[in-house]
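Reviewer 2 asked us to include a model.

Predict the structure of this chain.
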Amino acid sequence: MDTNDKGYDRRGFLKLVGLLSGSVTVGALTPAVALAKLQGPNAMSFRAVAGLPSAPWPAYASLVLEGSVNLATRSGVVNRTVFAGAPDVMSDIALPGMSQTIRVTDVRASPGLVRIQGVVSDRSQLQAGENANIEILVDQVRGIVRAPFSTSNVALSIQR
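Predicted model (structure tokens):
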């Protein structure tokens, strides 16, 4: 058995780390924390993350959507990036060819929901079958963002 001077073996240590990281993850996704930030009367920013591939398979990468929009001028920018590592162990290494900037062309807000229309700025970054026109739904009540990725829609959890 591999133990240290405190009496923990490797398995016990890993269980403790798993419990602690699970409680941090649950705390980070509570609805009170998971709201998009309103910055003044007309500006909103958000960051949302989802694991790739989606359940039931284990995630080995993280899709991150970060954006800032002006509700009055109906404009803004959203960045879509895929990072190495699952959301709970995400690295700062962006996977090559998997980053896109989306220029916001329209924003419609209703209570708890913001609908963002945009276009991918550099169309050479699109995958086969992927549309350059993007619709993103920011659901502040549920704390999720729905956005297209590749040829399907993904639900991402809003982060702080």
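The domain at 37-159 is CATH 2.40.160 (Porin). The chain is about 10% helix and 50% strand. We have added this to the supplementary material.
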